[in-house]
Design a protein that fits this description.
Layout (H helix, E strand, L loop, with lengths): L10 E2 L3 E9 L3 E8 L4 E8 L6 H15 L9 E6 L5 E6 L3 E3 H5 L6 H20 L2 E2 L8 E4 L4 E3 L6 E2 L21 H4 L6 H17 L8 H7 L15 H8 L10 H18 L5
Antiparallel strand pairs: 1-2, 2-3, 3-4, 4-6, 5-6, 7-9, 8-11, 9-10
Helix pairs in contact: 3-5, 3-8, 5-7
C-alpha cells in the first residue's frame, strides 16, 4: 500500500495524474489516470472526502480489503491502494477499454447470441465470489463493464458483504442496493445471500434481452412492486430464457438456482443461440 506522499491537485500520492472523470457513484468518483512510474493508463476510485460520512469511509476501507483478496479474469483487477496526504482513500484499478452494459442496453434489446456469453461470464464470476462467502449486493448494468475484447468485468464492491460478518455500516432494517435490481429480501431488509445476487442478475439479463427495465418508477415504487408482481418475462424470448429468468427471479431465495447452475444454463443457451444465429433473419 502506498504511504501518503506530497501531492498536488494534479498528482495523487506522488504517482498518479487524474486525467478526467469516468463515473460517479454514491460515495466515490472514478477517474481516468496515468501511472507515472509504470507509464500506463489506469482507473482511480477516490472517495469524495468532503461529503463522505464515517460510514462511507468504513465501507470504502472494507472494499479495499475485500477486493485485494480477489483474483478472477472477470473482475476489474486492483493494482494499488492507499491514502492521500489529506487522508482520502483511493483504489487504483486496471482501466477497462469498453462500455458499461448499461450503455449497451440503452441501444435496445441485445440478441441472445450476444448476451449469452456475457451472462455466462457474469454468473461464473458470481460463483467465484459466492464461493468465498461474499455477496456483491449491487448487481446492475452500470456495474458491469464489457471490454473491447468482448469479456465482462464486474466492478464496484462498495456495498459487498461477507456472509456471517456481524459488522455493518447500514442502519438496521435499511435497504441497501439499487431499487430497480435488488432482490425481494433486500426490499424487506432481511439478510442477503448469494441468491440475492442471482435475482439481480436475472433482472439484468431480462433487461438486456428486452431493452426494458422490469421495475421502473420512483425508487420506493420500483422496490416494493416486486413483492407483489413477478417481473414480466415475454414468452417470445428465445427458447430456454423465460424459464431460466423465471427461476432466477423467484420470490423466495431458496427457489433460485445457484450462480454456478446459472453459469452452466446460460452457457448452454449461448451455444444454442450461436448455432441458431446464422439462420436468423
Amino acid at each position: 500500500m502506498l504511504r501518503p506522499a506530497p501531492s498536488s491537485p494534479e498528482l495523487l500520492a506522488g504517482r498518479y495524474t487524474l486525467d478526467g472523470l469516468l463515473g460517479r457513484g454514491g460515495m466515490a468518483d472514478v477517474h481516468r489516470a496515468t501511472d507515472l512510474v509504470l507509464e500506463r493508463e489506469v482507473a482511480v476510485k477516490l472517495l469524495r472526502i468532503h461529503t463522505a460520512t464515517e460510514s462511507d469511509r468504513a465501507r470504502f476501507r472494507d472494499e479495499m480489503q475485500l477486493v485485494a483478496g480477489l483474483d478472477h479474469p472477470f473482475l476489474v483487477p486492483v493494482l494499488d491502494a492507499g491514502m492521500t496526504e489529506d487522508d482520502q482513500p483511493f483504489l487504483v484499478m486496471e482501466l477497462i477499454d469498453g462500455l458499461s452494459l448499461a450503455r449497451h442496453c440503452a441501444d435496445g434489446p441485445i440478441p441472445a447470441h450476444r448476451i449469452g456469453p456475457v451472462g455466462a461470464e457474469l454468473a461464473a464470476v458470481l460463483d467465484y465470489v459466492h464461493e468465498r462467502d461474499i455477496v456483491h449486493r449491487d448487481i446492475k448494468p452500470s456495474n458491469i463493464l464489457v471490454g473491447q475484447d468482448g469479456h465482462v468485468r464486474l466492478a464496484d464492491f462498495g456495498i459487498a458483504r461477507m456472509l456471517g460478518d456481524a459488522s455493518t455500516h447500514t442502519a438496521a432494517g435499511a435497504t441497501v442496493g439499487t431499487a430497480a435490481y435488488i432482490a425481494p429480501e433486500q426490499v424487506r431488509g432481511e439478510p442477503v445471500s448469494p441468491a440475492s445476487d442471482v435475482y439481480s442478475l436475472g433482472l439484468v439479463l431480462l433487461e438486456a434481452l428486452t431493452g426494458r427495465r422490469a421495475y421502473t418508477g420512483a425508487p420506493l415504487e420500483a422496490a416494493m412492486s416486486r413483492l407483489h408482481n413477478p417481473p414480466l418475462i415475454p414468452t417470445s424470448l428465445p427458447t430456454g430464457w423465460p424459464g431460466l429468468i423465471s427461476r432466477m427471479t423467484a420470490l423466495e431465495a431458496g427457489d433460485r438456482p445457484t450462480a454456478g447452475e446459472v453459469a452452466d444454463a446460460v452457457t448452454a443457451l449461448a451455444v444454442q443461440a450461436l448455432e441458431a444465429e446464422p439462420t436468423a433473419s
